[in-house]
Amino acid sequence: MAGVAANRQIDHIDTPAGGSLDRGTIVLPVTIRTASADDLPRLEWFGLHTPHRGIIAHAYGMQQSGAGAMLVAEVSGFPAGQVCVDFARKRHQGRATLWALRVFEPFRGQGLGARLVTAAERVAVARGFRHTELGVDRDNGRVLPFYERLGYEACGTESGQYSYRTPDGVLVRVPIDQWLLHKMLGTAPSRLAAE
Ligand SMILES: CC(C)(COP(=O)(O)OP(=O)(O)OC[C@H]1O[C@@H](n2cnc3c(N)ncnc32)[C@H](O)[C@@H]1OP(=O)(O)O)[C@@H](O)C(=O)NCCC(=O)NCCS
């Protein structure tokens, strides 16, 4: 009955489809923190990244084993962004690798991506790294100014392939064709050297 009443009310509002009925600005709390097991299903973002469930689990496993970190940007309780750090892959070059940076589309352009990168760099410094490195797909060149503003510079290219299995068991092979960017971080403590 309430629904019928509400419909009747809307019938009387002469607003074209998509027309505004209210406008305003809301301010939401943001926390950048390490991921917890509870985040993993929610980081699939309502199905968008469900095919990547295995990759998300792998990133979390790296954090649990100490080989990496998985950071989330929690906005009002929702994990609206993430970035992963791999301490192992280029340790021999003294570099921490940032990967899988992404922000859920409705939350983009609010500074979350920059905050995530900065937090990942702080994690890398705390682990004794003096450099971070990341790859940008050659078909994602529009993101380059974002990283340049954060102090990243081109340092080469990388190509190859990686694969993952979807929850349905399908093996997906993905070609890698990337620019490599790096950044020298502030003075780092000596933990890396000690390990
Ligand atoms: C890249 C990404 C994480 C940035 O997140 P964000 O929260 O929007 O970042 P910020 O708000 O800190 O910065 C946004 C700035 O980067 C620019 N930017 C980032 N990615 C861009 C893209 N693909 N195309 C155009 N501009 C882009 C925005 O235009 C914006 O610039 P402005 O401040 O001058 O308006 C987000 O766009 C994203 O998730 N993209 C899809 C996944 C991806 O490409 N990840 C990077 C893999 S290397």
From TrEMBL:
InterPro entries, A to Z: Acyl_CoA_acyltransferase, Bact_Acetyltransf, GNAT_dom
Residue ranges of domain N-acetyltransferase in the record: 30-177
Domain of life: Bacteria
Keywords, comma-separated and alphabetical: Acyltransferase, Transferase
Pfam families: Acetyltransf_1
GO molecular function annotation: acyltransferase activity, transferring groups other than amino-acyl groups
Protein name: N-acetyltransferase
Organism per entry: Azospirillum thermophilum
